[in-house]
Amino acid sequence: MGEVGDRPFILVSGIGVSSHYFEQLAPHLMQFGPVHALDLPGFGGVPHARHALSISQFAELVGKAIDDLGLEDPVIVGHSMGTQICIDLAAARPELTTLVLISPVIDASARTMPVQAVRFLQASLHEPFRVMLLAVVAYLTCGFGWFFKILPRMMSYPIERTAVSVGASTLVIRGEYDAVCPRPWVRQLSSAFPHAVDVAEIEGAAHSVMHAHAREVAGLCVRHVSGARVRRDEVGAEGLDDASIAVVPEAPKQEISLSPVDAAKSFVDEVEGAIIESKGNKTDDDRLVELGREQQAEARASGRG
């Protein structure tokens, strides 16, 4: 998908979940630049703030992380509620030039909890078991008290209004079966930007498109960063629809050839890494958290064969 580069990526996940949601995408992006997957306050074992934060306050914290890391114009990638945080950040910091919005929320025509709950359940039917497992663990770690404090902030945030103030080159990605982020909403959001926006839909994917379809998402991200737009000869038979949404076919499934012993070892290593991370979260030891996550990432990489 290109040569190794030094353009950094900042990954921001959605409500309630942790940076583990990017466990498949991050290794693909690391071929092109350093990747920083962030955990927000109250999520992924990070301590809660004293009060519920607004989307803009989350964005300020992401901006501070960028400054603390000394990153120059990183590629800002958000998923679900993370897209709200990233677009708010991009509006406040015009020096950021590249933005990727994966499964942006909330559809302006359906900004009610009952409708969004039904749509989320519809999309979840098309998610892989691994994603559902990650979600359950993340929500339990987050706690429903904090989750429901942040939920109203996400539901009411007018992402389409903020888009008007964003000058960064923007790519929007959705999954074919993502009821939370339907096609009409993606068209509406993309038209709100003051410049042309690339929009892609990945076949067979749902709301967490960057997990089960990491290679396709990474390819789109890297192509966008390079300045190339999705061309008709680069997408599937459907090509570009009448509203310029590129329909990207699923990549062939990769064969995994591991012996039972190696598969068992990868599983044990990942569980051990999760225990180390959990211990680090409980003791507020960032070193242990990083060590545990590194071990889990290595275990998953070896588990892919």
Task: Describe the overall structure.
With 305 residues, this protein is α/β, with parallel strands linked by helices. It is built from twelve helices and seven strands. The protein has a seven-stranded parallel sheet, with helices on both faces. Helix 3 links the parallel strand 3 and strand 4. Helix 2 crosses helix 3 (81-92) and helix 11 runs antiparallel to helix 12. The model is unreliable at 232-242 (pLDDT under 50).
Observed structural traits:
single chain; 305 residues; alpha/beta; 7-stranded parallel sheet; 12 helices; 47% helix; 11% strand
Write the layout of secondary structure elements.
Blueprint: E1 9-12, H1 25-29, E2 35-38, H2 55-69, E3 75-79, H3 81-92, E4 98-102, H4 113-124, H5 129-142, H6 144-156, H7 159-162, E5 169-175, H8 183-192, E6 198-202, H9 209-212, H10 214-225, E7 245-248, H11 260-283, H12 286-303
Helix pairs in contact: 2-3, 11-12
